[in-house]
Amino acid sequence: xxxLAIGIVGAAVLAGCASEQAALAPPLPGAPAAVADVRSAxxxxxxxxxxxxxxxxxxxxxxxxxMARGSYGAHIHTTGRCDPxxxxxxxPHWNPTGQQHGKNNPAGMHKGDLPNLMIGADGRGTLEMTxxxxxxxxxxxxxLDADGAAVVIxxxxxxxxxDPSGNSGARIACxxxx
Length: 178
Fold this sequence. Notes:
Layout: H1 2-23, E1 33-40, E2 45-54, E3 57-64, E4 70-72, E5 74-77, E6 117-119, E7 125-132, E8 150-154, E9 171-176
Antiparallel strand pairs: 1-2, 1-9, 2-3, 3-7, 4-6, 5-8, 8-9
């Protein structure tokens, strides 16, 4: 009897894992997506960002290289422009719901808030996040509206609380989503 119960529990766990894997499956071909080549003010490649529509959510992945070891704030910004040296042309964080900044802010968070990008000793790092209730294109407040969107990497870590930018410092790299 114990073996039967263990077998049933094991099957249920495996079924749960399979359904979770299905939920995390890659998007169907043709799903809206946008890619950004993220560069420093001097034009050096720093990262590649991909935003993909999965259901009613956007999945964002940033793969960085050639960066100093450390933690960096990363955000989606409202305007598809990256004029060096300060990248102010990218505008503020993408915030179609009018929230404050950061996952730890009781009045947060922006749709453009991302986790900190952690760079290892080899100069590489990856971050991934899924933002529910967001659209790459179309929908009520798409990321890619008439003036586009950009991804920005900041000089320091995001504190996940301070409005409007997480106290993450200057913009050191930027890429326009296309």
